[in-house]
Amino acid sequence: MTVDDPWTRVSALVDPSRRTLYDYVRRAGHPVSREEAGDATGMSRSLAAFHLDKLVNAGLLQARYQPPPGQLRGRGRSPKVYEPAGEGIAVTLPERRYQLIAEILAAAVDDDPTHADRAAGRLAHERGRALGTALAADGADLTTALAHLGFEPHATADRTLLRNCPFHGLAARHTALVCGLNHAFLTGLLHGLGITDRHALLAPRPGRCCVELAPTPNTHPGARA
């Protein structure tokens, strides 16, 4: 039986081992067996299973039985696998930064009440650039900066995907506005970090941020500016 109580969910992650397992399963991108979770976190299978089931009971993970790849269903007992229990967890896991959006929108209304949407985009870019400049001064690279802001970056062969949207709850209700501000914010962040080989690209897909960081298109000789 799972518990739909945010405080129970928070307390379930107080234990460092449990939090490590939760973070691993959330970032794995596929159902995780007890063996994989134990190997990845340096725990025994039995200890990993104990903590994983506690996370299921707390409503943070969900579990099911799935045969290994290549094994037909019904031949032997399928192992138990775990995956995130879904989006919209009441506690701020993963990290959300709604105050940042609220500050940008409030400043936009103060700055230009008649055209607050345009002002918000400009202010989101400025806030991103300022944060990028500050983080760069502290020695942060792109991955560190994105992780610090709660985007959960994941590098692929040619781009950086963002597994978490820090503005998820708002983006679900006001998609065009919030995703546009997020795009402007990340564009400013790249400028502040001094990164020129990546650009923020709107690419909404289920289960992750609406923006990804793609290679900046090459400027070919003779191309029109």
Would you write up a description of this structure?
The protein is of the alpha+beta class and 225 residues long. Helices cover 48% and strands 12% of the residues. The chain has nine helices and seven strands. The strands form three sheets. The protein has a three-stranded antiparallel sheet. A two-stranded antiparallel ribbon has the order 4-5. Helix 2 packs across helix 4, helix 5 packs across helix 6 and helix 6 packs parallel to helix 9. The longest helix has 22 residues. It is elongated, with a radius of gyration of 21 Å. The termini are far apart. The C terminus is likely disordered.
Which SSEs are present, and which pair or pack?
Blueprint lengths: L5 H7 L3 H13 L3 E2 H8 L3 H13 L3 E5 L14 E5 L13 H14 L4 H22 L4 H7 L4 E3 L4 E3 L5 H6 L1 H19 L4 E5 L8 E5 L10
Antiparallel strand pairs: 1-3, 2-3, 4-5, 6-7
